[in-house]
């Protein structure tokens, strides 16, 4: 289920004449090992079992490799080292086991002092990522308040009977918070009203979720969105950022399970990511729902790689 880094994915253009200043990511990314200098640890979650259960279009399990391939040829402007810490894959019905394995890997790299950047995969990644940061948080001398910021067209608060899916991760998180007696701190920005039932809006209200509709997140409304985000961040000690690529307009991100009719402009998404980073509270980030099978000329993969680059760069 867990596989070490496949460094063969890291290939790109060679600019020998430029020397060190001509380096690209593939020349700098190292395989993850214990006791390396503090940096960014990339993990992949090759799963779309949750998407299948949620009746979505499968193919997101190829997302981690697709993002790595685009990142590989990006120019190197990093201040800290970047490590490839491998992938957790999910086959058939073993989703919960895969989520637990990813949580363990996230916890491991955080214990080693690194920032985990996780590449999905369906948004079932959300429950795994939160479990990872929660494990790490619960071992601190004073447990921090961990807040989730989800840039997404969907709440992902669906109810379920037995099995979780890509539509249930934050409902699962809320239940686990209730079980362990911690506050459920959740902010969902970019919600598409037509893609979420009244039951989901009622659940969000009942769980005291801070949310904002996509129609209220234009460039002209950025300051209001940033104020809402700032108020949420103030309530948290640590932030886990999760970006569902379907929050972006379909023209920018066609390669997702559920393309957005409207979406939130990339300019706005990037401004919010920068705001979260500037808070000094960001401890974990993931990208979800890239489906290379549905992509057009790598448009979505390139956008996902750009966001990964923005998150990783100091």
Characterize the structure shown.
By secondary structure, this protein is α/β, with parallel strands linked by helices. 35% of the residues lie in helices and 18% in strands. The protein has a single domain, classed as Arginase, Chain A (3-Layer(aba) Sandwich). It is built from ten helices and ten strands. Strands 1, 2, 3, 4, 5, 6, 7, 8, 9 and 10 form a ten-stranded mixed beta sheet that branches. Helix 5 (125-138) runs parallel beside helix 6 and helix 8 (222-234) runs parallel beside helix 9 (266-278). The two termini are 31 Å apart. The mean pLDDT is 96.
CATH architecture assignment: 3-Layer(aba) Sandwich
CATH top-level class? Alpha Beta
- Overall number of structural domains: 1
Largest sheet: 10 strands, mixed
The fraction of residues assigned to DSSP E strands is: 15-25%
CATH superfamily, please? Answer: Ureohydrolase domain
Radius of gyration: 18 Å
Helix content: 25-40%
- Categorize the overall geometry: globular
- Uncertain segments of ≥5 residues (pLDDT<50)? none
Number of helices: 10
Task: Give the key terms.
10-stranded mixed sheet, Arginase, Chain A, 10 helices, globular, 314 residues
Set out the fold topology.
Blueprint: E1 2-3, H1 25-28, E2 30-31, E3 40-46, H2 49-53, H3 63-72, E4 82-89, H4 95-111, E5 115-120, H5 125-138, E6 146-151, H6 169-180, E7 185-191, H7 198-206, E8 210-213, H8 222-234, E9 238-244, H9 266-278, E10 282-288, H10 299-312
Parallel strand pairs: 2-4, 3-4, 3-5, 5-10, 6-7, 6-9, 7-8, 9-10
Antiparallel strand pairs: 1-4
């Amino acid at each position: 289920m867990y596989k070490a880094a496949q460094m063969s994915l890291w290939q790109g253009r060679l600019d020998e004449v430029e020397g060190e200043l001509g380096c690209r990511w593939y020349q700098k990314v190292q395989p993850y090992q214990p006791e390396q200098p503090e940096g960014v640890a990339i993990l992949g979650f090759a799963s779309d079992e949750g998407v299948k259960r949620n009746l979505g279009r499968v193919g997101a399990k190829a997302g981690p490799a697709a993002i790595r391939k685009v990142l590989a040829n990006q120019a190197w402007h990093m201040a800290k080292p970047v490590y490839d810490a491998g992938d957790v894959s999910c086959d058939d019905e073993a989703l919960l086991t895969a989520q637990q394995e990813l949580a363990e890997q996230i916890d491991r790299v955080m214990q080693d002092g690194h920032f985990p950047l996780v590449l999905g995969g369906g948004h079932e990644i959300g429950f795994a990522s939160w479990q990872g940061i929660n494990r790490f948080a619960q071992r601190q001398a004073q447990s921090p308040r961990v807040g989730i910021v989800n840039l997404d067209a969907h709440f992902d608060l669906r109810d379920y009977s037995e099995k979780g899916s890509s539509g249930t991760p934050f409902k699962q998180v809320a239940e686990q918070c209730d079980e362990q007696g911690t506050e459920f701190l959740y902010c969902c920005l970019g919600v598409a009203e037509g893609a979420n039932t009244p039951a989901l809006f009622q659940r969000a209200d009942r769980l005291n979720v801070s949310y904002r509709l996509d129609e209220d997140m234009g460039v002209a409304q950025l300051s209001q969105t940033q104020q809402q985000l700032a108020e949420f961040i103030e309530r948290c000690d640590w932030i886990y950022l999760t970006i569902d690529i379907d929050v972006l307009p379909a023209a920018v991100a066609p390669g997702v399970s559920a393309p957005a009719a409207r979406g939130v402009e990339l300019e706005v998404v990037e401004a919010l990511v920068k705001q979260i980073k500037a808070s000094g509270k960001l401890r974990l980030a993931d990208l979800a729902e890239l489906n290379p099978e549905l992509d057009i000329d790598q448009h979505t993969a390139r956008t996902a790689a750009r966001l990964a680059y923005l998150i990783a760069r100091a």
